[in-house]
Amino acid sequence: MPLEGYRSPTKQERCPNRSLLLLVDNDAVAPANGNKFTAPLNWDWASLVNPANFTIQRANNATFTTGLSSFTAAGAVRSLTQNVSSNTTYYYRIRANDTIGGSSAWVNALPFPIRTIIP
User: Fold this and answer.
1) Measuring CA to CA, how many Å separate 113 from each of 62, 94, 109?
2) Distance from the CA of 100 to the CA of which of 30, 34, 37, 93 falls in 20 to 30 A?
3) How far apart are the first and last CA of the chain?
């Protein structure tokens, strides 16, 4: 029997956006080899409880409909390095996911977008 006045939380309430912040260090985007670059991604989750995981998306346009790639990082992870191509514009966003299907809202990376330039 459920507790009086208790209701099941909605998906948004189970995994709300708790000051989720994704930073791409645009100054550290550097050539790895040839025309390939690496882009360090760092994020912060301002909660004592880690989510199950994070979903990070990268695209070539702000609506995330062109060149879309998705990556999953474990809930305790706070950084990732991506290989990116030179002379390209990338848009990143992130969301936190819980174990029962809830997700936070998407949060765009800062800066938004990043641009790699041929040195």
Assistant:
1) 8, 13, 8
2) 93
3) 65
Q: Tell me the torsion sign for CA atoms 11, 15, 18, 20.
A: negative
Domains annotated on the chain, with CATH:
13-116 (2.60.40.10)
Q: Compute the distance between CA of residue 97 and CA of residue 77 in angstroms, rounded to an integer.
A: 13
User: Who wins on pLDDT, 27 or 45?
Assistant: 45
What would the pLDDT profile of 51-95 be if each residue is shown by its tens digit? 899 999 999 999 999 999 999 999 888 888 888 887 888 999 999
The C-alpha atoms of residue 88 and residue 26 are separated, in whole angstroms, by: 13
For the chain, what percent of residues have pLDDT higher than 70?
66
What distance in Å separates the CA atoms of residue 114 and residue 72, rounded to the nearest whole number?
A: 20
Instruction: Check residues 9 and 99 and name the one with the higher pLDDT.
Output: 99
Task: Judge whether 38 and 84 are in contact, CB under 8 Å.
Answer: yes
Question: Among 117, 119, 104, 116, which Cα is nearest to 22's?
Answer: 104
